[in-house]
Amino acid sequence: MLADDQALVRGGFRLILESKPGIDVVGEAADGAEAVALAQRLRPDVVLMDVRMPQLDGIAATTRILAEVPGARVVILTTFDLDEYVFAALRAGASGFMLKDVRPAQLVEAVHVVAQGDALLAPTVTRRLLDRFAAVLPAGADEQRLPDLGELTERELDVLRLVAQGLSNAELAQRLVLTEATVKTHVSSVLRKLGLRDRVQAVVLAYEVGLARPRASS
């Protein structure tokens, strides 16, 4: 399902996605309220969600959709001048984000990735986002959340810190001198122990508890 207040954007995305086998665009919404109503009725697997829309913004719409359609996966569409909203959207449960000027092949890949239950968290974009918007992230640890990390081993804590920095599994493996298969096992263990759905939620938690902090802006 597509949610964007610009008909041209929706039309372009629909044209790209419906040209590929296995993807059906089941509906389009021009504002957040319509997106929530459509999602309730259509139960889409994936929602591509704009941030700024009339009636209801993309963040509020994401929160409501995921509460009422738990199986849906939401990908936030953003331009970098709107990124201050993206972290809130990830906290609301979005499965990732991508830039509106994404190439057609990347758009198709993004839909497949989140439909399969994975998180769309491009390492380079994640680093830029967290660095630029340090001001909107928590300044320190939340004492009440720290016990949530108690079940993690030291190695798993290291993995969580690096995931929060936006490192890919290949980069994690190189940094920790492990195989990618071992890294995937550690990441899965972290998610399971903390009751997290995906890497996006792991990044949010790491910043909320102060385990990771963005670099100072230059």
TrEMBL record:
One Pfam assignment: Response_reg
Cited SUPFAM superfamilies: CheY-like
PROSITE patterns membership: HTH_LUXR_2, RESPONSE_REGULATORY
Gene3D superfamilies: 3.40.50.2300
Keywords: DNA-binding, Phosphoprotein, Transcription, Transcription regulation
Domain Response regulatory: 1-115
4-aspartylphosphate: residues carrying this PTM: 50
Domain HTH luxR-type: 145-210
Keyword Transferase in annotation: no
Protein name: Response regulator transcription factor
Species the sequence originates in: Conexibacter stalactiti
